[in-house]
């Protein structure tokens, strides 16, 4: 009888350990963020970083691709168990947020031939602007005030369309991450894409976090990211999409307007 109880206790302990290790986690992922996320190929360097960080702790990521705007919504509605590319401002106080694991650097971009003078976010108020979805929530109060005065301000989920509309001269300025702009410009055959552009670094880089419905998953993820950085795998994944240029170096691939 005593041996049976010991075996039963051991079986229960193993089951509990198995339940807390090797979980399958449904994760909300913005679908139009190449090269960070390339939904149609189920890849991208940010997605691969997240996937490998979780895998190193025994977890399996199941991406649920939605528009960038809906990423925090799905987590709040409990349709997923985690979300990437978020901040406390977008997911609220209920989720368990990881340490920052990825940095985006949003910029304003205009065709050089128009010779726009954009020395501050306030200068955007004079122009037609096409920004990424939810930019008004991510880019701060100064940006929000300036776009209120814009003659034509729009936000769009498909960031490839921002590049199309810039070179098609349907907008004056696009606001998006510099790596996303460079990726789409190189990958797509845009009419007028050979035109030089001015890049205005009006925004500070934003460090994004991952949100989880369980504290243990958040802690596992932080450990996984730390391991990827320690081994050099983190930078290797970035370079596999951007070449040897780091995220910061990629900002100098065009003439940077002062």
Quick synopsis:
The protein is of the alpha/beta class and 258 residues long. It has helices at residues 2-20, 45-55, 71-76, 88-91, 135-138, 141-147, 159-167, 178-187, 215-231, 233-242; strands at 24-30, 32-33, 37-38, 60-66, 82-86, 96-97, 102-104, 106-111, 128-132, 152-156, 173-177, 197-200, 206-212. It has two domains: 2-103 and 206-245, D-Maltodextrin-Binding Protein, domain 2 (3-Layer(aba) Sandwich), CATH 3.40.190; 106-200, D-Maltodextrin-Binding Protein, domain 2 (3-Layer(aba) Sandwich), CATH 3.40.190.
Explain what this protein looks like in three dimensions.
The chain is α/β, with parallel strands linked by helices. It has 2 domains: 2-103 and 206-245, Periplasmic binding protein-like II (D-Maltodextrin-Binding Protein, domain 2), CATH 3.40.190; 106-200, Periplasmic binding protein-like II (D-Maltodextrin-Binding Protein, domain 2, 3-Layer(aba) Sandwich). Helix content is 38%, strand content 23%. It contains 10 helices and 13 strands. Strands 1, 4, 5, 6, 7 and 13 form a 6-stranded mixed β-sheet that branches. Strands 10-9-11-8-12 form a 5-stranded mixed β-sheet. Strands 2-3 form a two-stranded antiparallel ribbon. Helix 2 (45-55) crosses helix 9 and helix 2 (45-55) runs antiparallel to helix 10 (233-242). The termini are far apart.
């Amino acid at each position: 009888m005593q041996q049976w109880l010991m075996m039963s206790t051991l079986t229960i302990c193993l089951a509990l350990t198995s339940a807390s290790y090797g979980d399958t986690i449904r994760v909300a992922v913005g679908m139009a963020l190449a090269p960070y996320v390339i939904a149609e190929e189920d890849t991208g360097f940010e997605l691969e970083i997240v996937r490998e960080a979780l895998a190193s702790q025994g977890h399996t990521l199941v991406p649920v691709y939605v528009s960038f705007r809906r990423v925090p919504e799905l987590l709040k509605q409990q349709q997923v168990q985690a979300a990437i590319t978020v901040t406390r401002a977008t997911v609220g106080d209920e989720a368990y947020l990881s340490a920052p694991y990825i940095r985006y650097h949003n910029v304003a971009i205009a065709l050089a031939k128009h010779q726009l003078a954009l020395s501050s976010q306030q200068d955007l108020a004079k122009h037609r602007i096409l920004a990424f979805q939810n930019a008004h929530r991510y880019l701060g109060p100064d940006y929000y005030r300036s776009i209120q005065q814009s003659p034509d301000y729009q936000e769009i989920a498909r960031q490839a369309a921002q590049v199309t509309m810039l070179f098609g001269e349907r907008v004056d300025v696009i606001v998006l991450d510099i790596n996303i702009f460079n990726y789409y410009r190189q990958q797509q055959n845009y009419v007028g894409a050979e035109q030089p552009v001015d890049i205005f670094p009006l925004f500070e880089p934003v460090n994004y976090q991952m949100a989880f419905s369980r504290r243990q998953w958040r802690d596992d993820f932080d450990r996984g990211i730390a391991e990827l950085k320690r081994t050099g795998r983190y930078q290797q994944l970035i370079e596999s999409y951007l070449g040897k240029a780091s995220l910061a170096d990629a900002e100098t691939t065009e003439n940077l307007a002062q």
